[in-house]
Each structure stands twice: as structure tokens, then as C-alpha cells.
Amino acid sequence: MLLGDRKLAILRTIIDDYIVTAEPIGSRTIAKKYELSSATIRNEMADLEEMGYLRQVHTSSGRVPSDKAYRFYVDKLMQVNALSGNEAAYIKDVYEKKSTQLEELLMLTAKTLSDISNYTAIAVGPKIDTVVVRSVRLIPIDANYVLLIVVTDSGIVRDMMIRKPFDMDESYLDKVSEKLNFYFRGRPVGGIGDDVFDQVKDGFLRDKVFFNSLVDAISETVESSNTRKVYTEGLNNILDIPEYSDIIKAKEFFSLMKKKQLMFDLVDSDMPQGVNIHIGDENPIEEMKSFSVVTATYCVNKKIYGSVGIIGPKRMNYPKVISLIDNVVDELTQHLVALGDGSGGYDEEE
Amino acid sequence: MLLGDRKLAILRTIIDDYIVTAEPIGSRTIAKKYELSSATIRNEMADLEEMGYLRQVHTSSGRVPSDKAYRFYVDKLMQVNALSGNEAAYIKDVYEKKSTQLEELLMLTAKTLSDISNYTAIAVGPKIDTVVVRSVRLIPIDANYVLLIVVTDSGIVRDMMIRKPFDMDESYLDKVSEKLNFYFRGRPVGGIGDDVFDQVKDGFLRDKVFFNSLVDAISETVESSNTRKVYTEGLNNILDIPEYSDIIKAKEFFSLMKKKQLMFDLVDSDMPQGVNIHIGDENPIEEMKSFSVVTATYCVNKKIYGSVGIIGPKRMNYPKVISLIDNVVDELTQHLVALGDGSGGYDEEE
DNA sequence: GTTAGCACTCTCTCTTGTTGAGTGCTAACA
DNA sequence: TGTTAGCACTCAACAAGAGAGAGTGCTAAC
């Protein structure tokens, strides 16, 4: 059987309605909109059900769109419009004048996505094998402390106060910084193993105590860059979605969203550039098969770096979510500072 | 009427029981524990109710402790034991080898408090008038960017990538850093108004573009230190508490906890050093009068800096929460780096 | 002072009936 | 052949009612 124009129109109406109301749609509702009798619509609906686009919750209930219907809707029926002026302005404003720190930006991104969509949003950091140490530096602070700073190419900056075991002047610290840079600059964070740290420690024969604690701190720092982070926002939005607003389901959802590895699997699985839509069963992880997830990747230095995603009910507002995520990822990518490759010199780039 | 030994014992049993079960306690339950008939217990309970220590939920229900009873329990009846070895070890481990950044430590503290207590925890940053700029510094990163670093005396480190409008070598950056330090070091963050920034901008006549963006960045940075932060963890624990495990109440709670000013009022109102307990009506803010809140202050340089708190039902496990918060604040204070006053020189401190 | 007994109260759960929205099917109509 | 009116049927949701069970207060006896 083919999807004639009328069936198409009815299907679209049902989906549009259901996205808003979350209630099964009956034939009378549709009949009113097309000057046809409810009986005729019932016949059409029965056909659409047979073709796999609609389901009934129970024998005498109205119809609800199937996963197949949503997929069809996303591929063929819906129209993605630009974000409203207000919302676009709001987003611009959020990113305006903000730190260029990846972590802060990701947090902000998750928050913005969830605030505007009213769904749950996540943002995940880069895969470790893509992060490279850009610079290591010691800064004098006071009589007792120096500040250790480690910068990576994606603008991740880590710092740690280190206690000085003895007096040291600035030129001394500069020398040490230089030495540390020699060892660490350009190394991918994921590729620094204990052997490297040990080797570096051996390289500093004098002032062993201080250097040990320095190297330990760098190791700690690298370690924490090494663990990919997940930023989740708008978890509680789930409570406003009728399908999930009961304690048991909400709790399940919360504990699900806490599992970091699952979240990586959710947004990483395959990441072709651009916006990706996974509807229900299409999701790579079992636990999310009753949700829809819209993801997108962000880039630094034109390399794919990580992903962000919006998690909502299958009847989510796809057009809005898609233009939202597109817009936000654009802004995010623009604000991520692309640092040089650290090969030194003032090479022209951009 | 006086609280005789038996009444005391019964009251304690009722409170202990109710803390665990959250169910009104009937006379039979108590009677079994003291070889007395339920009728006798009923008489005692009626007395206790008359004295204001117990309430009935409805005419034929068992008894529930009143706010007065909890207060009495906290002041006279309970015994605060040391934290279990496991838990103490867990806390030690959490703080071991962690960054000395105030913000990260506060986040960690809230998380630890909520993880161990299974209630909701908050941690708030210092009041702005107590934070002083310790050091400002520019670090060369690559051909296009320098990293601006601002350190405050509580170990808050802020950084921001700044685009260079022209080539500049390290000694030039050092000179600029020195100048910035001259203007900002020692200033309380809260006391830097727009006039100061304007004045500093005027001080840099050459290279105006660059300095403007630098000063803007510092202003931005100071601004963001200027907004006190609240870190909340374990919000969802509310769902495990029977009294609050319904959608409406949970939502109310969530939106309540989002109101930053309320949270400040909640933990700041009066902060005598040490652990503070507010039971129900004793809470300084209206919205929290059905909860109990246990707070404690943490210090840097022996000055009170901010507070942390645990929010739970009035029937919370006070002994455990108290020893927990005590333990954690101790650990937190130990890990907060006390920086020198910035007056220069290698003055002996500690 | 303690206790057994009893009438009473209130919540909670289970059952039952009713209503209303929706269906599928059939037969008649244009 | 597509459309429609009509009708029997199904199911969820709600309300009302009946017990059961846990608890109380009070009284009278020990």
C-alpha cells in the first residue's frame, strides 16, 4: 500500500498533535480538521497502523505514532526553521565574553541546550588521544607556594598549588618551567605513562623532593584531563514530561544518566559530523530505547573533538531541537580557541 | 509535668524509630520493647503529647515527634559517634591529591557530603568582600594567544585566553604583568568598580587595544569571582525520602534549591563557627521550615570563608550527619591553601 | 500505678459500577 | 468504489462503598 496524500496529511497531523499533547489521537479529532467523517479517518488510521506507522495503546484507545513514523517525520515531513530571534540572541549572549576554557564552555553548552529545549542535555569532552600538552609553567605566588599551570591544545588549563621546600627565585622557576616543557610539550595526554614520569624524575637529580612533587602534580593533572568528563544539565526536566513523570521512572532515568560510560556510548558510537538523530530503538544503548537522542559533534582545529546531545521523549520537538543544537554547536566551535601545534615559532595559521 | 526517666526512654525510642521508618509509632511497638502494656504506654504518650513532644497525624494514628522533640533529641538525647572507619577513610581518600582550587574543593565537598549522608548537600563560596586579588600574570602560549591568570588569596585561579593583536616577546609580557599587578594586587575583589578599571585603562596609553581587552578580561574574571557560587549535590536523594517522594513536592524542592539567594540565606544567616543545626521552624527561610538543615563554616587563614550544609527531613540521622559534616569541613579547611598577604617578601607565616 | 476490654476513628485497599472516549464492522448511500 | 451513519463493543478512569487493620481514649478492675 502507498502513502497517498491524505494518509500523509493525517499522519503528519497525528504526529504534530501527539508531540504537543502526549495523548493518543482519536479519529474525531482528525475528522474535525479535514471535513470528513470519523469513520473515514478510522479506515485510514487502520491502514496506517497496518503499514506500521501507528500503534494503539489498547484496543479502544486512539492512535500513537510508532518509531517508524517518527523516522519518517524526521526524514520527510518536518520542516526545520531557524531558531526564534529571541533564542538566537540569548545563545549569542551566553557565549559572549565567556572564558575560553573547554570545560566551562561545555558546562555552559549543556546548560543552554537544556534551558532552551526543556529536555535533558549532555556534553562530553574530547577523547583523550586527541589532547596534546601545549605548555607547562611555574608561577611564583608567595613565600610558600608556586602555581603549576598545564595548558593543552584545546584550551584546557589545569592548575595546582605546590608547596616550595626551599626559597627559589623567579629565574630559577623559569629554568624549571623550560625543562618541564622540554619533556612534556607536544605529548598527547593519553600517551604519558608512568614510565615517562619516572624518566623525567630521573632527569632531575638535584632538588629531588621538589621535582618529585612537581612531576606528581603534573601526573595528577594529566590524569584528570585523562578522564573524560560528562556534563549533564536539565535532568529534572524529565519530571515535566508526562510519560516519565512518575517517581520510579524518574529515578531510573537519573541513575541511568549517572553512568558515564553509557553516556559516552550514547553520543559517541558513530559520529559523522553534523546533527544525528536516534529515535527509540535506533539508539546504540539498550537503556535509551524509549528515548530519542539528538547529538552533534564539535570541533577544534577542524578535528572532531567531542559531542553534545539532547535527550528527550520520542515525541520530542525535533525541528526546534535540531536547529537549537546546530546553532549552539556552531557557537561553541567558534569560541573554542584553536591553539597552535606548539612546534614553536610564530607560524601563521587560521 | 517533668520528663521522668521512663518518658525520656519512650521519647528516645519513638524518635529513633521514626528516624528509621518514617512511620508513626504506635503504643504496641513501644510496649513490646519495655515489658509494659500498650495502655500504659498510651498514657505516657498522651502526656508527652500534652508536653509538646509528640503529635498525631490523625486521631487514630500513632505518634510522630514534634520539632521540639527533635531539638530536645539533638541537645540532650543523641550521642554523636565518630564516623565509621570506612567512611572516614573514604573522605580522606577523596581529598588526597586533589587540586587546591577552592571551587573544585567545594564541588567535591558537596558531593562527598551528599554521597555519604544520602541527603542533599550544598557548599557556598566565600563572601566577596573577603576575597583579595593575589597575583595577575600573562603567559605566552602561541603565535596568537596569551593566557591571563588571576590568583586570589583563597586559591581561586581564573584563566582566560587573550588574542594578541601583535607580536610580543616574553619580557614584554612580564613587564605588562608587573604593571597589572601593581594595579590589582591586594585589592579586595568586591571593591574593584568600573572606575578602577577605567583608571587602569587610562594608565596604558600605548597599545590601547590590547590593554583594553586585557583589562576587560580581568574585569570579567573578577566579575565571575564576584558572583558567589552555590554547589549543590544529591538533589535526587530527595526522591528516596518517603515524605518527599512525590512528583509535586520533588519539583517544588528542585526549584527551591535553584534559588541561589535563598541558599545563601539558608546557610549564612548567622554563622557561629562550628556545626549548626536548624530544625524545621528554626530555619531562617520560610521555604525550608519542613526540613532540617545542618551547616558548618570553613576557614581560610583562620577567617570564616563560607559554609556547607546538609538538607534533609526533620527526622534526619543527626548523629551521623553531624560527625560527617564535622569531619569533612575539617578536611576541607586543611586542604584550602592559605596564601600569604601579598605584601611581598618572604615573610614567615603559617 | 498498671492493665484488660471495649467502642470508636481513620487510613488503606479492594471491589464494583458508571461514564466517556474510542474502536471495528456492517450496511446503506452517492 | 469511496464515504458515512449506526451500533455493539472495549477499555481506562473515576467514584462510591465495604472491610480490614492499626491505632486511639476511656473506664473499670486489679
* 3D shape of chain A: elongated
- CATH fold name of the largest domain in chain A, please? Beta-Lactamase
- What letter string, H or E per element, gives the SSE order of chain A? HHHEEHHHEEEEHHHEHHEEEH
Q: Total domains of chain A, how many?
A: 3
Strand content of chain A: 15-25%
Short description:
Chain A has 350 residues and is an alpha+beta fold. In chain A, 45% of the residues lie in helices and 18% in strands.
What does this structure look like?
Two copies of one chain form a homodimer. With about 350 residues, chain A is of the alpha+beta class. Chain A has three domains: about 5-75, Winged helix-like DNA-binding domain superfamily/Winged helix DNA-binding domain (Arc Repressor Mutant, subunit A, Orthogonal Bundle), CATH 1.10.10.10; about 85-125 and about 230-340, GAF domain (Beta-Lactamase, 2-Layer Sandwich); about 130-225, Heat-inducible transcription repressor hrca homolog, domain 3 (Enolase-like, domain 1, 2-Layer Sandwich). Chain A is built from twelve helices and ten strands. In chain A, the strands form three sheets. A five-stranded antiparallel beta sheet of chain A has the order 7-3-10-9-8, sandwiched between helices. Chain A has a three-stranded antiparallel beta sheet with strand order 4-5-6. In chain A, strand 9 (about 290-300) and strand 10 (about 305-315) form a beta hairpin. In chain A, helix 2 (about 25-35) crosses helix 3 (about 40-50), helix 5 (about 85-95) runs parallel beside helix 12 (about 320-335) and helix 8 (about 195-205) runs antiparallel to helix 9. Chain A is elongated, with a radius of gyration of 26 Å. The N and C termini of chain A lie far apart (about 55 Å). Residues about 340-350 of chain A have low confidence and may be disordered. Chains A and B meet through strand 4, strand 5, strand 6, helix 9 and helix 10 of A and strand 4, strand 5, strand 6, helix 9 and helix 10 of B. Chain A binds a DNA duplex (30 and 30 nucleotides) through helix 3.
